[in-house]
UniProtKB/TrEMBL annotation:
Its EC number is 3.1.-.-. Keywords: Exonuclease, Hydrolase, Ligase, Nuclease. InterPro entries: MBL (IPR050698), Metallo-B-lactamas (IPR001279), RibonucZ/Hydroxyglut_hydro (IPR036866), Xnuc_lig_assoc (IPR026360). It is an enzyme of class 3 (hydrolase). This is Ligase-associated DNA damage response exonuclease.
Length: 332
C-alpha cells in the first residue's frame, strides 16, 4: 500500500476517499457524500447521494429538502466501492457520527465534531482504535477546560430565581445546543414552560419526533412580556442583541458556548451571564481521545491545530494539519 492512508486525500473542500469515489463532509455538491452530522459546515444540499445516519438525514431534510438518502444506522456497515463504511456515535448532536473507513487492511476514523460529556439528546461518543484518526481541534488549547454542565445550568436557574421580574434570554445554536440546553434544564428539575424564538421551532419539533422529549415549549410571538417574566427564553445567538429582544421583560442576556470561557468574547457579545456549555471536546478530552484510539497518525482540522500537533509530537504520534475550507464552530 505504501504510505499510510494513501487512499484518502484531503482537499480544501473535503476529504476524498479514492477507492469509494466519495467525499466526507464536502463543502461543495458531490456525486457521493458521507456526512458526519447536520451542522451547515459539514452538511450541504445538492449532493447526488448522501450516506449518513437516519437522524442526520432527517435534519438535512428539514434544512435542505429531500435528499437521495442512503441511511446507515449505528452498528451497521455498508460497502461503497471498495471501502467498508460504518457510522459510530460522535456525541456531538443528535445523529452525529464518526465515519469509519476500512480499506486494504487500514482503518481511518473521520471523527467530525465530537464531545465526551454526557448529552441527553444524543448517543455518547464511542472510541474506535484506528490507524489514522482525523480530529477537530475547535478547543485545542490547554486554556479550554470545560466546567461541569450541571453547575453551569444551576448558575442559570439561580439567576432566574433571584430576579423573577426579568427573563433570561439565552443564545444557543439552533441545531443541537438549544435542544441539549432545554434537556439539561429539565434534568435539573425545572419544568416550567420555556419560550423560544421562531427560528428554533422546526428543529425542536424534529427532535421530539425523533424521540427527544423537551417538555412544554412556547413561542415568544404568542406571549406577552408579563407572561415571559420569570422564564427562560432561547434564541439563536444572532438574535441576542437584535431589536426582536426588546419585546422581552428586561432580559438577562446569556449565551451557552465553550467560547464563554474567554471573557473578551462574552463582553463582545454583551453577554451578562456567560454559560460555558460546549458541544465540542475540550483540551483534556481531545488528548484523552487520541490516547484511547491509539492511532499511528493524527490528522487535525477545524481549529487550533498547532498546539494539538505539538502535543502529538511530544507523545511520539505523527501528526499533520489539514486545511479544509468552510469549517466553523457555528457558535459552538
Amino acid at each position: 500500500m505504501g504510505r499510510l492512508g494513501s487512499w484518502i486525500e484531503p482537499f480544501p473542500e473535503g476529504i476524498y476517499v479514492r477507492p469509494a469515489d466519495a467525499w466526507v463532509d464536502p463543502s461543495d455538491a458531490k456525486a457521493k457524500a458521507l456526512v458526519t452530522h447536520g451542522h451547515a459546515d459539514h452538511a450541504r444540499g445538492g449532493h447526488g447521494e448522501v450516506w449518513a445516519t437516519p437522524e442526520t438525514l432527517a435534519i438535512m431534510g428539514v434544512r435542505y429538502g429531500e435528499q437521495n438518502a442512503r441511511p446507515v444506522a449505528f452498528g451497521e456497515s455498508t460497502r461503497i466501492g471498495e471501502v467498508d463504511v460504518s457510522f459510530v456515535p460522535a456525541g456531538h448532536v443528535l445523529g452525529s457520527a464518526q465515519i469509519v473507513l476500512e480499506f486494504g487492511g487500514e482503518r481511518v476514523v473521520v471523527s467530525g465534531d465530537y464531545k465526551r460529556r454526557p448529552d441527553p439528546t444524543c448517543a455518547p461518543f464511542v472510541p474506535v482504535p484506528c490507524d489514522i484518526f482525523i480530529t477537530e481541534a475547535t478547543f485545542g488549547l490547554p486554556v479550554f477546560r470545560h466546567p461541569d454542565t450541571g453547575s453551569e445550568v444551576d448558575k442559570l436557574l439561580q439567576r432566574l430565581h433571584d430576579e423573577p421580574d426579568r427573563c433570561i434570554l439565552i443564545g444557543a445554536y439552533a441545531l443541537g445546543k438549544a435542544q441539549r440546553l432545554i434537556c439539561e434544564i429539565r434534568n435539573r428539575g425545572h419544568h416550567d414552560p420555556i419560550y423560544y424564538h421562531g427560528a428554533l421551532e422546526r428543529l425542536c419539533r424534529l427532535y421530539e419526533e425523533l424521540g427527544v422529549p423537551l417538555g412544554e415549549l412556547r413561542h415568544c410571538g404568542e406571549a406577552t412580556k408579563a407572561e415571559m417574566a420569570g422564564h427562560i427564553v432561547i434564541c439563536p445567538p444572532g438574535q441576542l442583541n437584535d431589536r426582536w429582544s426588546r419585546r422581552l421583560p428586561d432580559p438577562v442576556t446569556a449565551m451557552a458556548s465553550g467560547w464563554m470561557r474567554i471573557r473578551q468574547r462574552a463582553r463582545q457579545r454583551n453577554v451578562e451571564l456567560p454559560l460555558i456549555v460546549s458541544d465540542h471536546a475540550d483540551w483534556d478530552e481531545l488528548t484523552q481521545t487520541i490516547r484511547e484510539v491509539a492511532p499511528k497518525e493524527v490528522w487535525i482540522t477545524h481549529g487550533r491545530e498547532d498546539a494539538l500537533m505539538h502535543w502529538c509530537m511530544t507523545h511520539q504520534i505523527k501528526a499533520r494539519e489539514l486545511n479544509l475550507v468552510g469549517y466553523e464552530d457555528e457558535d459552538d
